[in-house]
Amino acid sequence: MSNVYPEEFDAIILGGGFAGVYAAQKLARALRRSASSASVALIAEENHMVFQPMLPEVAGAALSPRHVVNPIRSLCKGVHVFKGKVDSLQLDERKLTMHAGDFAGPVTFSYQNLALCLGAKVDLSRIPGMQEHALLLQNVGDAMRIRAHFISRIEEANLTSHRPTKRRLLSFVIVGGGYSGVETAGQLIDLAQAIHKHYQHVDWADFSFTLVHSRDHLLPTLHRNLGEYTAAQLKRRGLDIVLNRRAKAVTANRVYLDDGSGIDTNNIICTVGNAPHPLILNLEKTAPAPVSIDRGRITTLPDCSIEGIPWLWAAGDCSSVPQTDGTPSPPTAQFALRQGELMGRNIARRLKGQETRPFTFKAIGELATIGHHSAVAEIKGLRFSGAFAWWMWRTIYLGKLPGVERKLRVLFDWTLELFFPRDINLLNPRFTTDIKETHLEPGDTLFHAGDPSFSFYLVKKGAIELRDKGRLIKKVGEHEHFGERALLENRPYLFQAVATEATTLVTIRKDVFQQIVSADSAFGKSLQQSARSYLTTEELELLLNRLPSEQLEQPVSAYMNAELVSVSSQAKIEDALDIFSESSRNYLPVIEPDGACSGAVHKETIYMRMLTSKLDRQATVSTLPKVNLPSIEQTASLRNALTLMTRSNSSKAIATDSDNRPIGMIAIIDLLETIH
């Protein structure tokens, strides 16, 4: 159940990119000037805005990562800023639900105006293997990872004298010949040229840089001459360029192209794969009036509002805002910034009952750095290249960078770069792994009932007790698992988990668990079955109360099958197969020489081993894997027997005498036939 935010906002803006932040700035400023009491909120998945054009310089160690981000709260004075992911839009009710975190859970907001500045997402599923093996460049963390990966490869190559291994370590492939791809390639070449001299066993000839582009020239949004100039400059500096080719598939060691050729590499940087935001695609179903979605972008009126829904707005990469000539605005930063500013002012005008204004901005031009103090630019129809274009790029983007402090820091970094070598510190943050081990001492609590479900657990060593309001529900021992029910049902944990001894758990994060379950239906079904053993006390009572109470209090001996068919642990497997063929049993309890039961052998398991491997029929039954069927004394009540089988996720149990010797079997299917 979601929490309801107590305040209804006059406007909520979704997205913390150029469009969202500048819309919030202009809207809040316009409301302050008019002394309006209207309230504005901005919801973003991060609490900072990333200056995307400078990410390649972060990857190339030319800029510090923190200098290209700005805290949204500092940029948007007077705006309520919330960090979280919007899960759904209830447009009919003018509400939305966002996920604030595992503890805060979902929160519902109400609004009068909603502005969509969601940008685009990355979808690499169309290229098999790309998601698993490629490095992306979407945020600061990606840029830091590319930088760390690049330097780490050089460090490793410095330690090997095997030339093929060295060259494989230093072979880099960039997929995509747009701005990000070209600028990243240029920055990495600059970084390699600047720092390889610090490594005694790495030569410049060991490096290999390849850029794969699907068009016939680089930087297709610029004039062809500039694209060809860029290619010539980068080739001269060591970049191999493959044009008119797409990456078809990626493995850990190779990029396969659509013409059947391939490139051997273990280092892939992907700058393609933009996809529409899911919330935008879903608008056709959820909007209160028909909306037009053009190639994943919502079509707006010239004032950035949506036709037929005057309180719904859109700007930035997720929108298709018409220019003065009627053509859609391109999804670039300069258009997103201006659209955001106009949309913010127009929302303020709408709130004050004034007429809105259309979007009239015309593109000033486009610029791209190509490394080595060189760039290309097209400004007002004029084309520039070389050092002057590089100076223009730095001057223009420095001016656009939000915040005086950030401007000074970036200017300082750029100045130092002119006189000092680039930083080769290997900054490789240690993030939480998807699968890790957790150690608990006796009495330690892993989680409480009601805590958000984070992980799926396997007991490597020790034991965990699951308790419901202090009552023991189940003891989970070595090689067993728990936590699946909460994750499968997307709910908090139902029990308290306490270690009864020194315990080591293998922990699988929630998102990884869900990926595994969605990919393997058989595994998912087995977990759904095991989850049935984790009924709460109330749920188990409801289940048992469906049966006649007088029969639930009867002893196990009244319902067990006293004709116990078993096999000695010292008998031959061949004997066990004969017993299976002569009886209708699927399980045979295994009896040890002292008369105790050590488990049961499963008929299907033996037959599968016969099919998949050589099975020595003359070997003893003790060599077979055993199923641990629960056991219960014959004097216990049927209620206790059903509880035990439910908690053990077993349809059968072994009935024993007072000396714990097996004397019969009890099965749920037999009980169903006798209970009326």
Automatic annotation (TrEMBL):
<feature type="domain" description="Cyclic nucleotide-binding">
    <location>
        <begin position="435"/>
        <end position="517"/>
    </location>
</feature>
<dbReference type="Pfam" id="PF07992">
    <property type="entry name" value="Pyr_redox_2"/>
</dbReference>
<keyword id="KW-0560">Oxidoreductase</keyword>
<protein>
    <recommendedName>
        <fullName>NADH:ubiquinone reductase (non-electrogenic)</fullName>
        <ecNumber>1.6.5.9</ecNumber>
    </recommendedName>
</protein>
<keyword id="KW-0520">NAD</keyword>
<dbReference type="InterPro" id="IPR036188">
    <property type="entry name" value="FAD/NAD-bd_sf"/>
</dbReference>
<dbReference type="Pfam" id="PF00571">
    <property type="entry name" value="CBS"/>
</dbReference>
<dbReference type="InterPro" id="IPR023753">
    <property type="entry name" value="FAD/NAD-binding_dom"/>
</dbReference>
<dbReference type="InterPro" id="IPR018490">
    <property type="entry name" value="cNMP-bd_dom_sf"/>
</dbReference>
<keyword id="KW-0129">CBS domain</keyword>
<feature type="domain" description="CBS">
    <location>
        <begin position="624"/>
        <end position="676"/>
    </location>
</feature>
<comment type="similarity">
    <text>Belongs to the NADH dehydrogenase family.</text>
</comment>
<dbReference type="Pfam" id="PF00027">
    <property type="entry name" value="cNMP_binding"/>
</dbReference>
<keyword id="KW-0809">Transit peptide</keyword>
<dbReference type="InterPro" id="IPR046342">
    <property type="entry name" value="CBS_dom_sf"/>
</dbReference>
<dbReference type="InterPro" id="IPR014710">
    <property type="entry name" value="RmlC-like_jellyroll"/>
</dbReference>
<dbReference type="InterPro" id="IPR000644">
    <property type="entry name" value="CBS_dom"/>
</dbReference>
<dbReference type="InterPro" id="IPR054585">
    <property type="entry name" value="NDH2-like_C"/>
</dbReference>
<dbReference type="InterPro" id="IPR045024">
    <property type="entry name" value="NDH-2"/>
</dbReference>
<dbReference type="InterPro" id="IPR000595">
    <property type="entry name" value="cNMP-bd_dom"/>
</dbReference>
<feature type="domain" description="CBS">
    <location>
        <begin position="560"/>
        <end position="617"/>
    </location>
</feature>
<keyword id="KW-0274">FAD</keyword>
<keyword id="KW-0285">Flavoprotein</keyword>
<dbReference type="GO" id="GO:0050136">
    <property type="term" value="F:NADH dehydrogenase (quinone) (non-electrogenic) activity"/>
</dbReference>
<dbReference type="Pfam" id="PF22366">
    <property type="entry name" value="NDH2_C"/>
</dbReference>
